[in-house]
Design brief:
Elements: E1 13-17, E2 24-25, H1 27-40, H2 48-52, H3 59-69, H4 76-92, E3 99-100, H5 104-113, E4 117-121, H6 126-135, E5 144-146, H7 159-167, E6 171-179, H8 182-191, E7 195-198, E8 214-216, H9 222-228
Parallel strand pairs: 1-4, 1-6, 4-5, 6-7, 7-8
Antiparallel strand pairs: 2-3
Helix pairs in contact: 1-4, 3-4
Length: about 230
């Protein structure tokens, strides 16, 4: 049992979680989907190690990067049918291989017990985010879910992070972002809240080099990191 006192229920801080590469290991399903779409359009499949460096800005940008890796120039018009295929295929295979990372579910429960509100702030569009959370039975943990298309601009804009805190009914002071990539760190900075990075996510450079306030290698270590940040 934690000895940390419960927080005031009136104005709780919010732990705002990124989704892909932070809460869930979605890489395998993203790789399969991207390559199904690219190959159907007559292009080469991309190696999983390369796809890992392309995730974090939403499916449309992933597809754009997949085309660019094939040396294919794209326009909004040429991208549209491929993006439609991506959405349809990925929706039908959203949790074939995707699972919460080790320790996630227990950690979410402990944070709730400690009086935090919890939110998701991902650059995945809502159409994909909501079914993925539901398929993994994660939805009920969260007071708010913000996708890449919920507000005008996605992360690294501050608005989705601040919107997640607001929709979760919490206050900005004491809230913390937990993410795996530069978009999360920059969004947290823009929102004026600290950021804990996980080092097992999807990023082309080591996340430690991006200057997060704390780095964890397992969700069992998140509460200690939050305690160190005095939130
Ligand atoms: O690139 C995506 O699909 C979304 O990524 P995120 O959950 O890490 O923001
Ligand atoms: Mg991520």
């Amino acid at each position: 049992m934690s000895s940390t006192p419960l927080r005031s229920a009136a104005t709780p801080p919010v732990i705002v979680f990124d989704l892909d590469g932070t809460l869930v290991s979605s890489m395998d399903d993203l790789v399969v989907t991207l390559n199904v779409v690219l190959e159907a359009a007559g292009h080469e499949a991309i190696a999983p190690e390369s796809v890992r460096t392309m995730v974090g800005h939403g499916a449309k940008v992933l597809l754009q990067r997949g085309l660019e890796a094939n040396g294919v120039a794209w326009t909004e018009d040429s991208l549209a049918p491929l993006y439609a295929h991506f959405l349809t295929y990925y929706e039908a295979h959203i949790a074939d291989h995707t699972r919460p990372f080790s320790g996630v579910v227990d950690c979410l429960a402990r944070l709730r017990d400690r009086g935090f509100r919890l939110a998701v702030c991902t650059n995945k569009v809502e159409r994909l985010t909501l079914p993925l959370l539901a398929a993994l039975d994660l939805t009920w943990h969260f007071d708010a879910v913000v996708g890449g298309d919920t507000f005008e601009r996605p992360k690294p804009d501050a608005r989705p992070v601040l919107g997640a805190i607001e929709r979760a009914g919490g206050m900005v002071t004491g809230s913390v972002m937990v993410g795996d990539s530069v978009t999360d760190i920059d969004a947290a900075r823009a929102a004026g809240i600290p950021v804990v990075a996980v080092d097992f996510g999807y990023t082309p450079v080591p996340v430690r080099d991006l200057g997060p306030d704390r780095v964890i290698s397992h969700f069992d270590d998140l509460e200690a990191a939050l305690d160190e940040l005095s939130v």
